[in-house]
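Batch manifest line 335
LIGAND: S-adenosylmethionine
JOB: complex structure
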Amino acid sequence: MAVHHAPLVDGFNRRISYLRLSVTDRCDLRCSYCMPEAMQFLPRKEVLSLEELHRLALGFIARGVTKIRLTGGEPLVRRDVIELVQALGREIGNGLEELTITTNATQLAQHAAALADAGVRRINVSLDTLDRARFEQLSRRDRLPQVLAGIAAAKAVGLKVKLNAVALKGLNEGELPTLIEWAHGEGHEVTLIEVMPLGDVDGDRIDHYLPLVAVREALEARWTLTPSEHRTGGPARYVDIAETGGRLGFITPLTENFCAGCNRIRVTTTGQLYPCLGGGEMIDLRGALRSDDPEARLAAALDEAMRIKPERHHFRIDAAGAAPAQPRHMSVTGG
Ligand code: SAM
Ligand code: SF4
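JOB STATUS: finished
ARTIFACT:
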């Protein structure tokens, strides 16, 4: 039926063309702003199979999704993830325009070549510090050497690497210029992110919340920042830095709302579609996938998701803001 192939357009006339698909909620790190040390992971039987993830992705491509980012948790800890990348890589040029992945890079050295061979061209790597002790403090694991080897391997096979760093007051705040300078020297773009109130962690995020306006001012005192027209279809806004010769992005969910241009939805590894990272609205796709009439049920579920996608998120971090805005961790919804 024609309706099954109608593009995804939400109630605010935003065309949804970008899917973030979480392939696992598990992770080999325990970044302190993301999850507690004793994080409870989902029982494996609740997680979608490789075949289900593939069918789901094809369903989205049929509805006009042109960009898919695999995420998690750490996508590269899922054993069969490369098979999924290869299967989806075959859709590039066939409705799908871009397939990417967000990774912590601990296992990237082993997988970089397979990603590139499957058609991945750009990847996002999360890296908050270049200091080994600080890395261990932030992620609760001593893995910086593996991460740097992963980034080098990605570069060596021609993958374009974008680094994402969460700006954290009193933690990596003072090192951000070093990180940016190093990344630009290596030819990698960097984007800074404000920490978001998603899920409980062991400490209180507010202690480390650092508004990016303050970071930007500090960088402006040091370097020449020129606002750039560069856009990637995402929420980042960019500047070019004259002294480093590179580009720097800012993602400011708390200090500057960007929801009007939202083009994305997220699906968890159990098939729950969240039309907004910062909202509680959810549609279950696993039930649709496992029903007698998956195609029709999936189409109806996606239409419903478009109907309930909220106009904007309601993140807030304030003096009384100890409670997370959403109880889901970023590692569940997919970053
Ligand atoms: N494990 C992979 C990684 O770290 O790149 C992919 C998933 S991770 C949840 C995706 C991104 O979310 C990372 O860049 C991470 O720094 C970021 N992140 C996690 N928790 C966050 C939070 N509460 N606020 C802002 N960013 C967060
Ligand atoms: Fe794992 Fe990524 Fe969360 Fe760090 S941010 S704990 S690497 S999912």
